[in-house]
Each structure stands twice: as C-alpha cells, then as structure tokens.
Amino acid sequence: MRHALLPLTLFYDGACPLCQAEIIYLSSRNQQGLLRFVDINGPEYDPQVVGVSCEQALARMYGQMEGREAIHGVPVFAEAYRRANLPVLAWLFSQPLLRPIWNLSYRFFAKYRHTISGLIGPFFLRLAKRVSHSKSTSI
Fold first, then answer.
1. Hey, what's the signal peptide range on this chain (predicted)?
2. What is the residue-wise DSSP string for 26-40?
3. pLDDT, tens digit, for every residue of 8-21?
4. CA 78 → CA 8, 47, 74, distances in Å?
5. pLDDT range class, residue 137, cuts 50, 70, 90
6. What letter does residue 64 receive in the DSSP assignment?
7. Number of Cβ atoms within 10 Å of the Cβ of 61
8. DSSP alpha helix (H) spans, 13-98
9. 73 Rama sector, left if φ>0, alpha if ψ -120 to 50, beta otherwise
10. Which one of 11, 37, 65, 66 is CB 3.0 to 4.6 Å from 7, fit for a cystine?
C-alpha cells in the first residue's frame, strides 16, 4: 500500500546558479504539485517560522513537509526526488550505506558552492532551462 506524499517545501540558495538549476529541473518534474521552493535570500523566507536561521540553511539543505518540522541533509534530497517522480535518485539518496558519502559530498558542496557554481553553474543553469522549456513546449 502506497502512502500519500505530503507536500514538501525546499529552502534553497537563489544566489547559487547550480542550486537554481536543480530547482528549475525539479520544478519541471513537479507535475503533482508536491514541491514548493523558497529562496532563503528572498522575502518569502522567514527563519522564525521555519525555525532555521539563514546561516543554517546555507550550511545544509533544509526542507519542510506540510504541517511538520523542518528536515535537513540527505533525507531532503530523497524526499524531493520521490515527489519529482525520480525513483532511482530517491532510492539512491535513501540508502543508509550511501548516506555518509552524500553527507560528505554535500558538506563540501555547501562550503564551496559559489566557487563550484561559478565554474559549472552557468552550464547547468542553461541546461536546466533548456530541459524545462522543452518539457513545457511538448505538453
């Protein structure tokens, strides 16, 4: 028996091109409307309501399921990919044996995201926009 998925809000760094690319891609896969996106640098983000400071949100990936407390780290990716109908990625990010690798990788990325994004972000941002545009025109 499958359980209904609760909507998930992802809190992301809108100043990071690579983060933007991921959000654009997930948005294009959000056919069921189970994902919502909030830029932690924007006026919609309220640290008091979420219970997560901007500094914390910049250091780790945070999400919040409707009516629940915020979650952080690798589980956020697994939940987001599940809602975006990306079962292979959801499975990979939910495997306990892989979690230390994902945690280490994301910690490194979070620390150097602006440098990494400066190098490869524009390419992935263009790619995500192209994929998103081609999906919207083929519907």
1. none
2. HHHT-TT--EEEEET
3. 999 999 999 999 99
4. 11, 23, 7
5. low
6. E
7. 23
8. 17-28, 47-50, 54-59, 74-83, 87-93
9. left
10. 66
